[in-house]
Give the backbone structure.
Amino acid sequence: MTKSIFNSLKGNIWLEGLFGLEKENIRVDQAGNLALTPHPAVFGNKLRHPYVTTDFSESQIEMITPPLPEIGQTVGFLETIHDIVSLELTNEYLWPQSIPPILPADQQIPIASYDEEGSEAREYREFLAQKYGPKNQLFSGIHFNFSFSEKLLKLLYLKSDSLVSFDEFKDETYLKTARQMLRLRWLYVLLFGNSPVVDPSFELRCKMAPYPVDKNVIALSIRNSCYGYRNFDDLYPDYGSVQGYKASIDQMVKDQKIAAPKELYSAIRPKFIHNPDHISYFEFRCIDIDPLTKAGISEDALRFLHALALYGLLTDETDDFGPKVQAQANRYHTGVALYGLNSTPFLIDEEKQNVWHKAQAIIQQIIRLFTDCGIDQFGYMQSLNQALQLAKKPESRKVYEVLGGVVKDGYVPFHIQKANEYLTDSRDKSYQFHGLEDLELSTQLLLREAVKRGVSFEILDRKENFVRLKKEDNTQYVKQATKTSLDNYASILAMENKLVTKKILEEQGIRVPKGLEYTSADTAKADFLIHQGKPVVIKPNQTNFGLGITILKENEDEETYRRAVDIAFEHDSTILIEEFIAGKEFRFFVIGDEVVGILHRVPANVTGDGFRTIRELVELKNQDPLRGKGYRTPLEKIQLGEAEAMFLKSQNKDFDTVPTLGEVVYLRENSNISTGGDSIDFTDDIPDSYKQIAVLAAKALNVVITGLDMIIPDVTAEATNDNYAIIELNFNPAIHIHCHPFQGKNRKLNEKLMNALGY
Amino acid sequence: MTKSIFNSLKGNIWLEGLFGLEKENIRVDQAGNLALTPHPAVFGNKLRHPYVTTDFSESQIEMITPPLPEIGQTVGFLETIHDIVSLELTNEYLWPQSIPPILPADQQIPIASYDEEGSEAREYREFLAQKYGPKNQLFSGIHFNFSFSEKLLKLLYLKSDSLVSFDEFKDETYLKTARQMLRLRWLYVLLFGNSPVVDPSFELRCKMAPYPVDKNVIALSIRNSCYGYRNFDDLYPDYGSVQGYKASIDQMVKDQKIAAPKELYSAIRPKFIHNPDHISYFEFRCIDIDPLTKAGISEDALRFLHALALYGLLTDETDDFGPKVQAQANRYHTGVALYGLNSTPFLIDEEKQNVWHKAQAIIQQIIRLFTDCGIDQFGYMQSLNQALQLAKKPESRKVYEVLGGVVKDGYVPFHIQKANEYLTDSRDKSYQFHGLEDLELSTQLLLREAVKRGVSFEILDRKENFVRLKKEDNTQYVKQATKTSLDNYASILAMENKLVTKKILEEQGIRVPKGLEYTSADTAKADFLIHQGKPVVIKPNQTNFGLGITILKENEDEETYRRAVDIAFEHDSTILIEEFIAGKEFRFFVIGDEVVGILHRVPANVTGDGFRTIRELVELKNQDPLRGKGYRTPLEKIQLGEAEAMFLKSQNKDFDTVPTLGEVVYLRENSNISTGGDSIDFTDDIPDSYKQIAVLAAKALNVVITGLDMIIPDVTAEATNDNYAIIELNFNPAIHIHCHPFQGKNRKLNEKLMNALGY
C-alpha cells in the first residue's frame, strides 16, 4: 500500500466496511453464582438461532450481531440482543465481566447441551473440558468481525496497479492488516483491557509459570495475559499467504498440537466464508468485556480498533512476521495485559521502550494518517483523541474504575450491581432497538421480536422502514411494521377510501356514522329538513386542526344549521354532514380473527395531589422513562408551552395553579400522543360483543391487520345494533402504543404480528 | 303535490333518480332474415346473466342495464351492451327496428330454449306462442325503469306534511305519476314513435278490426297501435292504491283474462322489488326502437320522458282514472300511434282538439314548471326545447327519415344498412364503455368484459376508477383495472421501491442495470475509476423530461465524467450512476405464470409515400379511429405543434417536407403514447427465453399482475445471462395499450384479467 494510494483516495470512504460483534456473557444468579439453569427455551435451537446461542457452557450465552455497515449500529444491535436476553432471564443476570463469576466444582459446570443434531458440538466441548478444564472455558470476551467494503477494496485495487487478481489483492490486504493488528494489538489492550481480578472460586494457572499461583493477582487484562485461555503450545501460523496460512494450520493438526483448526486460539482469525480460497473478513479476539458499558463494548473502543486496522494497512511492515516476530508480538501483548495497570513507564520488550510514549506516538501517527487521507468523521476523530488522552493519562482508563469498585464493594457485589443497573435500563428501554432509533418504534419493536425468535432481518430502505425478515424458507417483506403480505392490495385500497369503507360496512349491517357529501352550500341548506332534529357534525371534507367543524346536538334551528354549512364551506369545497355519535373513541387492533389490543387516548393531563403546582405535576409525570421527545419513545413529554398555557387559561388556571387532591387537569384539548396525551389500555375492559363487531368489520373488508376506530358511548353496556359506530379502518396502525401504554398491559403486538407472519 | 312543495324545493334535486333500460333486438342474418342460430354461448346461462338474455324467441336478444343515477350513463350502458353483443355475433346483425325483420313460418320461429332450470320460462313462452301467435311476440321495444331518488322522496314527504307513512307516501307518489304518464303517454309516442312499416312476411291484425288487414299500412308507431302486441281484452287495473292495483289484477287472473300478472301488457307497470306491499319503481313500456340511433334510444327522448313524469307528478289530476278514463287514454294513445304521421291537425278524441297545439301547450307547461322548480340542467332544457320544435314542426320527427329510407331503399335494406353502420361503429369503439368515458380506458375495457361475462359491477369511486365486481359468491374490488386482491400488499410496496426491486432481482440472478447512488459530487467523482471504461448513465435520482441525464458510452475521459456528475447534481441532491444498456425497451405484461402481452413503443412518426407532405401524412395517420385526444382513445393524434416542428427542424425538415417512399420520419424524440407514439405488439416476436425471465422476476417479487420493462438489444437472439436487463416492475400497468395497439393483435388482457379474478 503505497503513499500514492492514500494521496489519491480521500475521504470517509476509508471507513467503509462491515462490522460484526460476538459477545459471551455468563448467566449468574442474583448472588453471582454461575447459573445452573438451562439456556432460555425461548431462543429455540442453539444451532439455528442467528443471534443468541451458547458457547462452551450451557450458562455461557453467546450473542452475535450480523455484519453491519456502521459501528454505532453494530454496538446498538449487540446492546439490543443483550436487552432481549436479559429480559428473558428469571432472577438471573448477564455477568458483565470477562473473568467468570463464582464457579462450582468442575464437574458441576454445565457443558452446553444439544439434541441429536448437536452431538458433534457437544463432543467437541467435552473434549475441550477434558483438555483445558471447564473453568478456563468460562473466560468470556468479545470478538470483532471486520471487513473492508468491496468498493473500498476495488478502488484500492484499481489505484494499486497490482498485477495479481482482485481476489488475491484482497487476500494480501487482509493478511497485511492481520499481521499489523497482531503487532499492534498490545495498544488496544493497553487502553481498553478490563479483566483485572478474579473471584476466589476461580483457579488461575499462569502459562509462563504453569502451576497454581496466588489468587490475588491483579492485572490489566488477566484474560489477555498468560493466565488467559490459550493453547498449551506456542503456535505460529504463516500469515504470509492464504495457502501458507492454511498449510501451517493443517500441519499443527497433523502434529496433534490442536484437534482442529478452530482450536487455534490466535488473536486474529482470517475467515473464509464466500470462497474457501480467499479471505472474506477477519476476526479480532482480544476484546475484554467492558463492565462499565451495558453492551460490553463502547463505540469509542471499537472505532479505535478500526482506526488501528486502517493504520496497520497503510503503514509499512518492518519485518517478515515469522515465528520470532510473532513470539515477540505475543510477549508484548501478554506483557501489557499483565503489567499494564502500571501507569508509570514500564519496560517489557527487548527494545526497552517507554510503553506510554510508544502508545502516544502511534495514536498521533494514526491521527496524522486520518488527516492525510481526508477522513474527518466526527466519531472517529473523537475516539482517537480520547485514546490519546488515555495514553497520556493512563489512570483515566476504565479498568481503574472497575478496580476501585471491586476494592470498595467486592468483586461479585460490584459486578452484580452493574448487572442490576443494566437490567433496569434494559427494562426501561424495552421499546427500543439501539442503533436503529431512527426507525419508527413499531418497526423497532417488530425487529426486537425478530431477534428474539432468531429471524434474520435486513433493512431494505431505512427511511421507509422497509425490512425483510427471513427464517428458514419463510421470507417476508414488511414496511412500517404492519404493511405486510398478509393483506391483499384491494383491501388496502378499500380501507384507504373512507367512502368505500363505510359503504361496505353499512352493507354488512355494521353501524357507521351516516352522512351526506355536499359540493354546493345551497343543496346542503336545502337538506335541512333531512337532518333536522338529529345530532350532526358539519365538517369540511378535509380539515386540519378541526377547523370549520360544527357539532349540532339538537339541530332544530335552521339559521344555526345554515351558518354551520357556510363555515364548513370556508375550509373546503366539499363538506360532509354526518350523524354525530357521542362517546369515547377506541382503537381496536385486529389481527385475523382476534382483537389483540384496544386503546383509548386521553389529552395531556395531570392529577392533583393537593400541594404540587401544575408545573410540578407535569415535571413529575414527565420523569416516566416512556416519555421523551420527537417520537423516539412510546409517549411524549407534556409541554409547558403556549398552547398549554392558553388551554389552562380557558379554565382560569395557569402553570402555578395547585389542583386539589384527585382533580384531573387537562393541558390540551386534543388527545394526540404527540402532544403529551396518555394511552390507556382497554383490551380487557371492553365487552366481547364490540370485539366481535370489530372482527366482522375486518372480515367485511377482507383485511388481516387493521387498526379500527370505534366510538362507544358506554363501555359497560353490551354492543347492540345502535350503541356504537365505526369511524374508520387504518391499514398502517402503530403497534407501539399497545405495547407500552401509559396505563395497562403490554399487549405484545410485535409477538402477535410475528406469529401472524408465520415465525 | 301542492304548489308550495315545488316552491320550497328548488334545483336539480328534482332530477335525481335511478334510470334503467331493457331493450329487445332481433338477431338477423345479413339478408334480414330472422336468425335461426342459438343465442351466443359466450353469454352463458340466460336465467343468470344480468345484462344479456333472450325474450320470447331464441333470436330475440334482451339487453338490460342496471339502474343508474343519470340518463346519459344509462343510455351509454345500453349502447355498450349493444356493442358487446354485436361483436359476438357471426355474420348476424341486431335488427334496429321494433317491427320484426323477415320472418319464417310460425312453426319455424325458435322459442327461447332453456335447460331444465328454465323449464317454467320455456312453458310460459309456449303458452304465449299458442295464445297470441309467435310472430306477434317478435314486436320488440324498450322498457324504461324509473324511480325517484330516496332523498327526493324524503324531502317531498317532509315538506308535504302528509299523515301517511313514508312508504305509503312513496306509493301515492308513484301511482300518481303512473296515472299521469298513462294519460300523457300519447305525447311521447307522437314525438318519438318510430315503427311505421312492416315487412310483407309479417301478418298484421288490427284489434279494432279483428281481421287481416292490408299489409301496406303505414303508421307512426304500428307497435303502439291497435296492430301492436296486446291483450285480447280491454283490461283496466285499479291505479288508485297498491292494494287496489293488486286486487284488480288478481281478479283478471281469476276471470281468466290473463294467465298471470305478467301477461298484463299495460303501458306502465309498478314494480315491487324490495317489499311486496310497496312500489320500488315503475316500468314505462311504450318506447319504439329508434332505428337512427345505435343504442335504439336517444338521451333526448329519455330525458323528455323523465320530464313528462315530473310534470305528471306536479300537476293536478282532472279525473278519477277509472275504466272510462283509462279507455279514453288508451284510445288517444293508439290513435296517435296509428294516425300520428299526419303533420296536419287531426282530431281523434271526444274533445276534438288539435293534437299539435295540445302537444305544444304541454311542453311549454313543462318548461315553465322546470323554471319554477329551479331545474336548469342543460341536457333537460335542450331535450324540452327540441321536443317543442318537433311539436311545432312535426315533419322533422325521425320517423320521417326512416320512412324516407324505407321508401328509397326498401324496408329490409334500409334497416340492414343501419345495422351494418352500427356494427362498424361497435368495432371502431370496441375499447369504450359509453357513459363511462371519463374512466381510464383500462377500466372501461375491464368493465366491458364484466358485462360480457355477466359480472355485475358497481363504481365505488368514479374519480379513482375503483369498482366492485360480483358474480355469484365471487366479489372483487378492483382499482384502475390492475390493482386487485390477487396481489399482496408487501409485493406492491417492493415493486414501488426501485432499489428494493433491483436488489431482489439481482439476488435471483436476474440482470438489472447495476448502479450506485451518490449524495456527494466529490464521492461520485472519486469513483471514476470504478466506472471507467464502462458505458454509464449519469442521472438525477428524480428527473422530469430527462433533464440532467448524460449517457457516456465509452466513459474514458475523466473530465467529461466529472462534468456529467455536476450536471446531474444541478437537478437533484441524489444522483445515480448506472450501467448503460443499449437496446429497445419492451413492456412485458405478466399475469401469474404467463406473459400475456409484450409491447414496444415508438415515437410519433409517419412513413413517406413519395408524394404526401409530412403534414398530409400526419393527417392521414390521425384518421385511425384509435387515435383521439385526451386519453379517451388507445392512441393519441400526432400533433403538428411547436415541439414537433422543432424536432423536424433538427433533421432539416418541416411539415411541408415530402418524405421519400418508405422513409420513416420521427416527429418526437420520446416514445410516449400521449404524444402520438405508436404501440407495437411483440408478443409473438420475442423468444420464450425472455418471457421466462419476466415470469421469474414476477415470482421473485411474488407478484401476480405486473408490467415489467425490459431492455433487449437483439430480439432475434435467445436470452442469455447478460443480453437483457430489467428496468422496473410496475404494479399498475395499463391494459388498453395491449388490447388496441397501433400494430399487432388485441391481446385481450381484459379477458385474461377477468380469468385471473376467477370470473
Q: What stands out?
A: Chain A touches chain B at residues 9-11, 13, 151, 154-155, 158-159, 460-461, 464, 466, 476-479, 483-494, 497, 499-500, 503, 516, 522-523, 526-527, 529-530, 702, 731 (CB under 8 Å). Chain A has four domains: 3-230+265-426, 441-513+583-603+677-759, 516-579, 607-669.
